[in-house]
Amino acid sequence: MSITRRGPRHLGFIHLVPFDADAPAGGFRDAIELFRYAEELGLDSGWVRTRHLQRGLPSPAVLFGALAEATERIALGTAVIPVGHENPFRLAEDLATADVLSGGRVRAGLSVHPPGYGDDAVNDLVHDAGWRAEDYGYGRIERLRSFLAGDPLREVPEYRGIGGDIDSARVEPHSPGLADRLWYGGGSLRSAAWAGGAGLDWLVSNISSAERGITDFALAQRAQIDAFRAASTRGDAARVAVARVIVPTDGATPEQAAKYRAYADARTPRTLRVHGRNTIIARDVLGSLEEIVERIAGDAAFQAADDYLFELPFEFELADWKHILHELATRIGPALGWEPGRGD
Q1: Residue 266 CB: number of other CB atoms within 10 A?
Q2: Phi, psi for 319 (deg, rounded to 5)
Q3: If 0-12 CB within 10 Å is exposed, 13-18 middle and 19+ buried, where does residue 279 land?
Q4: How far from each other are the two terminal CA atoms of the chain, in whole angstroms?
Q5: Bridge partners, residue 45, by sequence
Q6: Which residues pair with 279 in a beta bridge?
Q7: Taking burial as the number of CB atoms within 10 A of a residue's CB, which of 49, 110, 207, 314 is the most buried?
Q8: What's the rounded Cα separation, in Å, for the pair 116 and 286?
Q9: Strands (E), the chain
Q10: What string of pLDDT tens digits covers the 344 residues of the chain?
C-alpha cells in the first residue's frame, strides 16, 4: 500500500521511560533496549519525556550517556525538558557532555513555564525560595542557547602557574552545533511565532490549544505550524515534528490487540471537549495499516511536518513498544513515503 504525497523526512518515537518505584533500574534497561532495537530497525530518532515527581525519567542527559554506548546512529531527543526546573548553566553542561559522548546526536526539545505545583511549600522545596523572583519566559532558553554556543561568560587571565591551564571562559565541554539543534515544544500561536523567530525548530504533540475559534485539533496545530514557518529565520532548514499516540493493531497478538483497544477507548472521551480555557487533546490513532495511513495522510498538521513521531503509551510494556516500532519502521513509515537513512 502507498500514498501519492511527499513523505516524512524523519521517523521516530517518544518514550516516557516509566519504571517500577521499587525497581527503577528495570525501566531504564528497557529504555536502552528499546533505543537499540529502534536503531536496528533504521528509525531516525528516539525522544524521551522529562518527568519530575513522577515515575518517569527526570534526567535525560544521564540516560543519553548510557545510550551513547548502546547505540551508534539514532538521534537522541528530549520531548521536552521543562527549563523552569533547570539552571540553564548546569543544563548546558549536561547536554553538552551527552552530545560529546554521543557524537553530536542530541536534539534538545525545551519548554518554559512557571513552577507547576499548586502548593507554594512544594515549590519552595523543588525550586528553592527564590523561584518567585525567577524569569520563566523565553529568555531562559536564550540564555541556555548562549551557553551551548560557547559565548564567553568571563575573562580568563593569563595563566602564570606551572603545568597546563584548565580554566575556560565558556561552558565546557563545548559541543559544536548543539546550539543549532534546539527544539521548542509548544502548543500556542505565540510560542510558534517566537520559536520561528528565534531560529529554533518546532515540536508539537497530542495536547494543544484551541485559538481563534479553531477547535479541530489538526487544524489548530496546522495554524501553529504555519505561524512558525512564517516567522522562521531559517527558511527550508527549519524543521517541524508532529507527534501522536499511534497504536497499530496489525501483527499484534489477540491479547495485545485487546489491550490496545481498551486503552484507546478509555482515552477517547477526553478528546471530545475543550479542557479549561482552551486545551484540546488529539484522539489516539488506533487500527490497521490502512486506517493509520489514511488518518495520518489526512491530518493537516502531519501534511506540513518534516518529522513524524509515535508517542508510546507508558502503560504498555517492552514487547508492546517493540511491536509498535516494528510496524512503524517496516510498514507504516514506508507506506507514508519514508525511507531510512535520509540523514539529518
Answers
A1: 11
A2: -65, -35
A3: middle
A4: 26
A5: 12, 75
A6: 209, 275
A7: 110
A8: 31
A9: 10-15, 45-48, 75-82, 106-111, 182-185, 201-204, 207-209, 240-248, 279-281, 285-287, 307-311
A10: 333 344 699 999 999 999 999 999 999 999 999 999 999 999 999 999 999 999 999 999 999 999 999 999 999 999 999 999 999 999 999 999 999 999 999 999 999 988 888 888 999 899 888 888 888 999 999 999 999 999 999 998 887 776 668 899 999 999 999 999 999 999 999 999 999 999 999 999 999 999 999 999 999 999 999 999 999 999 989 999 999 999 999 999 999 999 999 999 999 999 999 999 999 999 999 999 999 999 999 999 999 999 999 999 999 999 999 999 999 999 999 999 999 876 56
Q: How far apart are CA 49 and CA 60, in angstroms?
A: 8
Beta bridge partners of 287: 248
Q: Look up residue 275 and give its three cell numbers.
A: 479542557
Show Cβ contacts of residue 29 under 8 Å, excluding neighbours closer than 6 positions. none
